[in-house]
Structure to design on (468 residues):
């Protein structure tokens, strides 16, 4: 149960974002609370990824503000902000010249952790994301797609951020690997209780992983609902989504109200 | 064989001119790297400037070398010493391949990698030195390699304005209509070019990520 009084960890306040004459986001309002996974669902170009990048200031809103832990993210040091937020993207963006060990340890190292602590953390994270420790010395081109994405998640978790932004992290994986990673994400989230914003266009994934689903269309928030509510939603776009994905969605929405 | 006998008989001078030649090429390449690499990085990050910068470097490249040496001759401080002037001219010629390859190399880094790095909270300089430059290094060095090889050849012309180097043998040989003298300049110059090509190529492989 969310307590209504608790202040949101992430809050979009009337955010507009416009680039090169295109209105990408219009009057976007959303609150993300501690420990929940809010899935931004929508088709390409609906503004999901833009919303995500506004949180860690990879983009700056045209107007409105994004508050992170109660403070506008436009204030303060952008580098500090980003290091306090884990970021996972679809293309993973692993550094081709870095070993797995160096990749995961990068932020802790530049944050000045002792060598011993970094090494311990790397092993802990490898185990956490289900990778054998002997992978530590490999480079990205020696890993499978699923392993790369796991390393991407481990890298995002390295400095133990409270917030995790995930931009279609499992989108490019084969169905079996995706299923595996989704399952592990749920287990991980049960342990870690991160505040997660997760972008996807896959309703099934949204139902499975989300505490709440925020449906977006053409830069606007259409509706926000818990997975079970979403299936019954009277909103025309939401029901169009449900119809498009067909039967068997009930079983995907297994988390329902928590 | 008479070429080699001539070179042996004049080995002191061959060595001296080779060293002079190396000095011209070495300094000019160094300066061109000091200017060209930062400039290439700058235009890779601010694409607005890439056209004017690359076009300028291109235009310099099209000026015939003898004409450029001639243009620079009346410049006060430079004109006093031919080697300064030669180093400047060679630097200008070496800029294009270095700027262009730095630009290409940095632009060639996967945008997802750069974005992931920025999203993780790397500062712009951490991003540059830990991600972009290491990934671009082999492309940048292949630009340096081209620049060095061009410079070794061009530096022979510097002898026309009295800057020394192996071109002295070549010009003297031309005046004397003596192939041996021409070759005494041309052979070491060709060897230098090969050596430089090989050396930078080796460095390139050494620094290549993977």
């Amino acid at each position: 149960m969310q307590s209504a009084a608790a202040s949101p960890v992430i809050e979009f306040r009337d955010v507009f974002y416009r680039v090169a004459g295109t209105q990408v986001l219009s009057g976007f309002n959303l609150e993300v609370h501690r420990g929940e996974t809010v899935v931004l669902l929508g088709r390409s170009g609906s503004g999901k990824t833009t919303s995500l990048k506004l949180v860690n200031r990879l983009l700056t809103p045209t107007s409105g503000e994004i508050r992170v832990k109660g403070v506008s993210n436009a204030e303060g040091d952008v580098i500090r902000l980003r290091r306090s937020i884990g970021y996972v993207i679809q293309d993973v963006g692993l550094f081709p010249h870095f070993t797995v060990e160096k990749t995961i340890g990068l932020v802790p190292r530049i944050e000045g952790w002792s060598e011993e602590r970094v090494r311990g953390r790397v092993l802990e994270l490898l185990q956490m994301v289900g990778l054998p420790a002997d992978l530590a010395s490999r480079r990205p081109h020696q890993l499978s797609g699923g392993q790369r994405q796991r390393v991407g998640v481990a890298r995002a978790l390295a400095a133990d951020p409270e917030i995790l932004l995930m931009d279609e992290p499992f989108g490019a994986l084969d169905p079996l690997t995706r299923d595996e990673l989704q399952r592990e994400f749920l287990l991980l989230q049960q342990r870690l209780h991160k505040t997660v914003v997760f972008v996807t266009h896959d309703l099934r994934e949204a139902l499975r992983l989300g505490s709440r689903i925020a449906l977006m269309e053409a830069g606007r928030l259409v509706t926000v609902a818990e997975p079970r509510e979403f299936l019954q939603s009277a909103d025309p776009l939401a029901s169009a989504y449900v119809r498009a994905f067909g039967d068997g969605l009930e079983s995907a929405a297994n988390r329902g109200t928590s | 064989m008479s070429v080699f006998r001539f070179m042996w008989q004049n080995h002191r001078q061959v060595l001296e001119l080779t060293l002079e030649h190396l000095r011209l090429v070495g300094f000019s390449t160094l300066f061109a790297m000091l200017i060209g690499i930062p400039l290439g990085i700058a235009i890779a990050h601010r694409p607005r400037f890439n056209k004017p910068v690359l076009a300028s470097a291109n235009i310099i490249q099209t000026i015939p070398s003898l004409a450029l040496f001639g243009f620079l001759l009346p410049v006060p401080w430079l004109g006093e010493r031919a080697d300064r002037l030669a180093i400047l001219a060679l630097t200008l010629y070496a800029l294009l391949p270095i700027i262009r390859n730095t630009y290409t190399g940095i632009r060639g880094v996967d945008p997802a990698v750069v974005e992931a790095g920025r999203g993780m909270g790397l500062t712009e300089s951490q991003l540059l030195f830990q991600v972009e430059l290491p990934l671009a290094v082999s492309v940048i060095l292949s630009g340096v390699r081209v620049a060095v090889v061009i410079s070794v050849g061009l530096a022979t012309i510097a002898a026309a304005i009295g800057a020394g180097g192996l071109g002295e043998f070549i010009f003297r040989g031309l005046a004397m209509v003596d192939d041996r003298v021409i070759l005494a300049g041309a052979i070491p110059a060709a060897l230098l070019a090969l050596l430089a090509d090989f050396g930078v190529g080796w460095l390139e492989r050494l620094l290549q990520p993977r």
